[in-house]
Amino acid sequence: MSVRQSLLAILDQGACYGYQLRAEFDRRTGGTSPLNVGQIYNTLERLERDSLVAKGDTDAHGHVFYAITDAGRTEARDWLAAPVARATGTRDELPIKLALAATLPGVDVTAIVQTQRRASLAHLQELRRAQRSGERSDGDPSGEELAWLLVADALIFQAEAEVRWLDHVEGRLTQHPPRALELALETEPPRRGRPPKATAIA
Q1: Which of 32, 73, 120, 146 is the most buried if burial means most Cβ atoms within 10 Å?
Q2: 3-class SS at 64?
Q3: pLDDT tens-digit readout, 131-178
Q4: What is the per-residue pLDDT for 1?
């Protein structure tokens, strides 16, 4: 998630102070990825350093307002117009955990998958309940409600995909006897540098 561009996109509507930016970000994203105030002010300092925002007036309560510059407006609009680049490889703990577990002796990977599936299904049911409770009965959501529903939909699709992937993993595991997957420690010292391209995931 790009906090930098998200704040710029909000500031494109008008000058805001830090707490106000946090409230606007939560309001527009359904409060599913809350930002702390320290993170917002650190980002604002960097944006000011990069001439993307400028410090403006201070109100009677001591709130310092930040206004977007032309350069900041360009960056915000470029970000909104560009596709989100997905990283190659994964740092997601679950596939890493299962990949390691499958190669370790004495580990029941199927049990790990089943435990995870139960947890993932419970999480999915919780998301669906939250989504239903957030939907208006007249089917005409406000801007805030629609923003929350969009994020909730994404979380539900991700959870559904995880459950399907776990079913797929279990199917793969049943095709191989557990001992066939175990890897002993290499006795030769590892070579330095990047792994060969054939084994790296592009």
Answers
A1: 120
A2: strand
A3: 887 776 666 778 888 888 888 899 999 999 999 999 999 998 888 776
A4: 60
Q: SS3 for 172?
A: helix
Q: How far is CA 44 from the centre of its chain?
A: 21
In angstroms, the CA 31 to CA 29 distance is 5
The residue behind tokens 């000011």 is 48
Mutual angle of helices 109-134 and 93-103, in 10-degree steps: 160
Angstrom distance (rounded) from CA 100 to CA 52: 44
Q: Which CATH code fits 3-81?
A: 1.10.10.10
Quick check: 198 pLDDT over 50? Answer: no
For the chain, give every domain's residue range: 3-81, 93-181
Q: Which of 1, 12, 6 is nearest to 71 (CA)?
A: 12
Dihedral, 172, 174, 178, 181 alpha carbons, nearest 10: -20
Phi and psi (nearest 5°) for 53?
Answer: -135, 160
Task: Supply 185's token pair.
Answer: 């420690």
Query: Distance (Å, rounded) from C-alpha 22 to C-alpha 156?
Result: 25
Structural tokens at position 6: 């998200």
Read off the DSSP letter of residue 31. T
Q: Please answer whether residues 79 and 5 qualify as being in contact, where contact means their C-beta atoms are separated by less than 8 angstroms.
A: yes
**Long-range pairs of 48-57 with CB within 8 A, sequence gap ≥ 24:** 52/8, 53/8, 53/11, 56/15, 57/15
Question: Nearest-CA neighbor of 54 among 40, 65, 63, 62?
Answer: 65
